[in-house]
């Protein structure tokens, strides 16, 4: 298991001002960080990748579809092309950063709804786009971990039944799913069964409390989550995801308007120690 933390707790765009907190993350004993990549240039992420590597931290990435005008699922060819161009930019940045995984909901615009579930045409267009991404990722030596979201944030991918079927449709070894305990806590009746159903398609495990605060302080049964993950043979990236005050890039979908942890030191140390202890005990 490689333990990481999603840097959305610091902000939506990571720059030099965040380096002191990242240095603390490294000192506490995290193995890697998951960098939000929502804007900027590959040159910026190449610089950041070098700084993270110097701290001994591995790199991962989380990205989104920014708006409906760059939707890779759209039936409008010009909009869909902008969406495909955005997915290509995501991979440009990942390769500059040195990401081992690209996670996040880069399937549909967050907070955008059509009034129904995904159509067969949308699923087919998405699978075609993500298969192309997976082929490029395989050449680059990294993996994709597409994130499901709860029904209040997207209509496209909510449950592990949907996620497993979608991964099977993409049908590429570099393509998998980012399992997120917060979203699954809303959508699944049984997290252990949901994880077993996903099986080897789980490329990243997002550890996120039911209130998106400090891991271990809430209602999610992480002992069962970790036992099940290990039973499926998962030994990949386990990533803390917690939110501070609203992140502008995500606020419209996540509805996070208040800090959900008392301070960074508490979040970093308590979450790290809890996961290391519970994973070992699982």
From TrEMBL:
Name this polypeptide is given: D-tagatose 3-epimerase
Enzyme class: isomerase
GO molecular function terms noted in the UniProt entry: isomerase activity
Database matches in SUPFAM superfamilies: Xylose isomerase-like
Keyword set, alphabetical order: Isomerase
Domain Xylose isomerase-like TIM barrel: 23-248
Domain of life according to the entry: Bacteria
Organism of this sequence: Palleronia marisminoris
EC number in record: 5.3.1.-
């Amino acid at each position: 298991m490689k333990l990481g933390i999603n840097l959305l707790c610091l902000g939506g765009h990571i720059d030099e001002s965040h380096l002191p907190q990242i240095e603390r993350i490294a000192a506490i004993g995290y193995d890697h960080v998951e960098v939000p990549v929502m804007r900027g240039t590959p040159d910026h992420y190449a610089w950041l990748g070098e700084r993270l590597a110097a701290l001994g931290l591995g790199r991962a990435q989380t990205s989104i579809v920014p708006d409906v005008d760059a939707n890779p699922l759209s039936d409008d060819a010009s909009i869909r092309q902008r969406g495909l161009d955005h997915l290509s930019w995501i991979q440009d940045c990942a390769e500059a950063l040195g990401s081992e995984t690209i996670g996040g909901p880069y399937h549909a615009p967050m907070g955008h709804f059509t009034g129904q579930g995904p159509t067969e045409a949308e699923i087919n267009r998405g699978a075609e786009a993500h298969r192309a991404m997976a082929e490029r990722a395989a050449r680059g030596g990294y993996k994709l971990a597409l994130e499901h979201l709860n029904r209040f944030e997207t209509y496209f991918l909510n449950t592990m039944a949907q996620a497993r079927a979608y991964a099977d449709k993409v049908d590429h070894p570099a393509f998998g799913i980012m399992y997120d305990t917060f979203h699954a806590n809303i959508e699944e009746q049984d997290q252990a069964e949901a994880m077993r159903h996903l099986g080897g398609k789980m490329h990243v495990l997002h550890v996120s409390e039911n209130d998106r605060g400090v891991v271990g302080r809430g209602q999610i049964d992480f002992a069962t989550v970790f036992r099940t993950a290990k039973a499926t043979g998962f030994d990949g990236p386990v990533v803390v995801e917690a939110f501070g005050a609203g992140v502008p890039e995500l606020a419209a979908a996540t509805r996070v308007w208040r800090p959900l942890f008392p301070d960074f030191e508490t979040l970093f140390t308590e979450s790290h120690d809890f996961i290391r202890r519970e994973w070992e005990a699982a």
